[in-house]
Write a structure and sequence with these properties.
225 residues, 7 helices, 21% strand, elongated
Length: 225
């Protein structure tokens, strides 16, 4: 769902809530309760939609890497499964790995505009769970398009503020982390990148190409290579 639409619903919920308080203050405690409840429900539903875990939003992307492997169509499963295997072998602490259908919006998901991703979540600490990694591989003609995205998802409070008064800045949020949390996010993302790199390199070698010709450096806040 477009962020502008979500913002309209958020404001509607807030206005209904305060209208209910206004009615109650002038007409008595028996009145205005339905407006207050309905307003709260709209705000809660709007925030939950904005934070949907199976939606990949471009404004939440901190870092990204992608490459096009020539004449490697049909190998998407090898990339995703290989990456998952290397991740498990890495023994990364508290790492959750799930294969999911992901969309860029709620409406897109309802209409079936989805792609399969590996979704990684670091559950080591609550402060790190907002930083998810989405890994994708898909056929593009006779070639294979591979990519990953490191995202920062707002907390409920941040999502509400962003919907009402301003846009959420993922880059700003990660820069506000303490040194240890930044270190953990970097290690988590770098490990995921290198595990995918192993899986991609294996496919490249199987097609008789040179993996050294791939630009492995990510483009974003971390600049992982």
């Amino acid at each position: 769902m477009a962020r502008s639409v979500l913002r309209v619903f958020a404001w509607l919920g807030i206005l209904l809530f305060f209208f209910g308080l206004f009615v109650r203050s002038f007409a008595g405690a028996a009145y205005g309760g339905n407006y207050i409840l309905f307003g709260l429900l709209i705000v809660i539903a709007t925030v939950l939609l904005a934070m949907s875990p199976d939606i990949l939003r471009k404004d939440q992307v901190i870092d990204v890497w992608s490459a096009l492997i020539e004449k490697a169509d049909g190998k998407a499963g090898d990339i995703l499964n290989g990456t998952a295997t290397f991740l498990r072998e890495s023994k990364a602490p508290s790492l959750d790995i799930a294969k999911k259908k992901v969309s860029t919006s709620l409406v897109g998901g309802i209409l079936g505009n989805e792609r399969e991703f590996l979704v990684l979540t670091d559950k080591q600490r609550l402060s790190l769970r907002a930083y998810q990694i989405f890994i994708n591989a898909r056929d593009y003609g006779v070639n294979l398009d591979v990519s990953w995205y490191l995202t920062s998802r707002p907390t409920i409070a941040q999502a509400l503020v962003a919907l009402v008064i301003k846009s959420y800045s993922a880059d700003r949020e990660i820069s506000d982390l303490n040194v240890f949390d930044q270190q953990d996010v970097r290690a988590y993302a770098t490990n995921a990148h290198r595990c995918m790199k192993k899986a991609v390199s294996k496919v490249i070698e199987e097609t008789g190409q040179d993996a050294a010709k791939i630009d492995w450096k990510s483009k974003g806040f971390l600049g992982i290579s």
